[in-house]
Amino acid sequence: MSRIAYVNGQYVPHKDAAIHVEDRGYQFADGVYEVCEVWKDNIVDMPRHLDRLGRSLSELRIGWPMARKALEFVLAETVRRNKVHNGMVYVQVTRGVSRRDHFFPPQDVAPSIVVTARASSPAAAEKQAEAGISVVSFPENRWPRVDIKTVALLPNVLAKQHAKEAGGKEAWYVDADGNVTEGGSTNAWIVTRDNKLVTRPAESGILKGITRAAVLDLAKKEGLSFEERAFSLEEAYGAREAFVTAASTLVMPVVKIDDTVIGNGHPGMVATRLRQLFHTVTDLKAV
Ligand code: PDD
After folding, report:
1. Centre of ligand 1 from the C-alpha of residue 204, in Å
2. Ligand 1 pocket residue status of 50, Cβ below 6 Å
3. What is its EC number (predicted)?
4. Residue ranges, the chain, pLDDT below 50
5. Which domain holds residue 114?
């Protein structure tokens, strides 16, 4: 089946989709993005993702590329046209096309927008979740504004590639205090020996994940005890369980951190249960 992308007002064949060479996203990474899960013909937690998109845009003083309602429609339409039943929908907004100059372009330059959708196999994801993943620690080297979901992902690319070459699936950033901040494209969690869920507070050092928020809702609903506090890499090595969350992975158990096996080396009960129950707390918008 041929894929379709939405680019600045038009649905075009994916293979022909293009942006201008002087798009500021291309030249300066001057743009932001969101990834929403598509689950059983629904876009998951779209309101929360669009709220965060709005926040990222406003922090960078980039305008909305269209009204929010229209964007909701374009996301759903892109999913529909690509016949994606399970997978993800991606939206990227940049400061637009203008002659290369570090200063913001003139007011009349419109933001650029691209939307794509991609199918993925739920069976393959389940298989991975049943095995769990390994993560590899990496020194935190990103700018302090990681709360903004910018397309400037070069540090994340390098950290994740390092993890891959060391046999892992994800990198865990560790800050100067020895605390885990988050993954290269996920939030990080542990379950302590006394069964407490722990994840870093969203005030600093992390992106405030939408999946993280849903898992916190789920923990409350299930009566699990949890703490939003910093945890060190050492504490994570000794944890009963560890896992990561993101729209692309949902709740993904971690069974090894660097050379240390976590728990008994198999996905933990808490992570597995949170994964199973995940969609009971999410907002589902049928496409
Ligand atoms: N990444 N932290 C970082 C650095 C991320 O890039 C992401 C998401 C998350 C989790 O956020 P959420 O739960 O809202 O997906 C945390 C997306 C999926 C990506 O870049 O592909």
Report:
1. 15
2. no
3. 2.6.1.42
4. none
5. 4-120
pTM: 0.98
Whether 98 lines ligand 1, by a CB cut-off of 6 Å, is no
149 has catalytic annotation:
yes
Same domain, 166 and 262: yes
Distances from the Cα of 165 to the Cαs of 102, 132, 171, 255, in angstroms?
35, 18, 11, 17
Residues 53 and 88 in one domain: yes
103 shares its domain with 139: no
Atom of ligand 1 nearest to the CA of 149: 6
71 and 134 housed in the same domain: no
* 246 pocket-lining for ligand 1 (C-beta < 6 Å): yes
Q: How many domains, in total, are found in the chain?
A: 2
Task: Please work out whether the CB of residue 205 comes within 6 Å of at least one atom of ligand 1.
Answer: no
Residues in the chain: 287
In contact, 263 and 28? CB cutoff 8 Å: no
Q: Check whether residue 56 and residue 172 sit in a common domain.
A: no
